[in-house]
Amino acid sequence: MSLLDEQRAYYEARAGEYDEWWYRQGRYALAPDERERWLTAVAFAERTLDEFRPSGDVLEFACGTGLWTRHLARHAGTVLAVDASPAMIDCNRARRLGDHVRYRQADIFAWAPRRPPSTWSSSATGCRMFQPSSSQRSGTRSPRRSGRADESS
C-alpha cells in the first residue's frame, strides 16, 4: 500500500471522529491549560482566515469535515472542496454550507480543476491560503506538480 493510500484509509476511518479530535473532546480531551492553548490557537487561525476574506472562486484541498470550508464559504463566491476521502466529504457536505459549495472526491496529485481558482486553500490541520501565480490563473499550470489544468472535473 502506498503512502497516499495509507493516508486515504486513515482519514476515511477517522472521518466520524475527526471533529471530536479537533475540538479536543471525549477521548481526545486535553488538560485544561493545554486545551486553552489549543483553542486560542484555533481561534487565532479562524480569525485570521475571516480577516483575509477569501473571495471569488476558492479551491480547497484536503477539505476534510469542513472545519475550514465553513469559513471559506462565508466569503467566497464559490468553493470547490476536494478530498480523497468520501467519508470526509460526507461529513463536510452534512454542514450544508450552501449551493455555492461544491464537492469533488479526488487524489489532488492526479486531478486538476477545469479552470484555475482565484484562491487556493490547503486544510491539513490548519489553513494555508495563497494566490495562484499569473500562469496558474491563466490555466497554463494546475496545482499539481506538472501538466495543464484538466477540462473534466
TrEMBL record:
Keywords from the named record: Methyltransferase, Transferase
Pfam families linked to this entry: Methyltransf_25
Span of domain Methyltransferase: 58-112
GO annotation terms (biological process): methylation
InterPro entries per record: Methyltransf_25, SAM-dependent_MTases_sf
Superkingdom of origin: Bacteria
Gene Ontology molecular function: methyltransferase activity
Keyword Repeat: no
Biased composition (Low complexity): 131-141
Region described as Disordered: spans on this chain: 115-153
UniProt-recorded name of the protein: Methyltransferase domain-containing protein
Species the sequence originates in: Paractinoplanes lichenicola
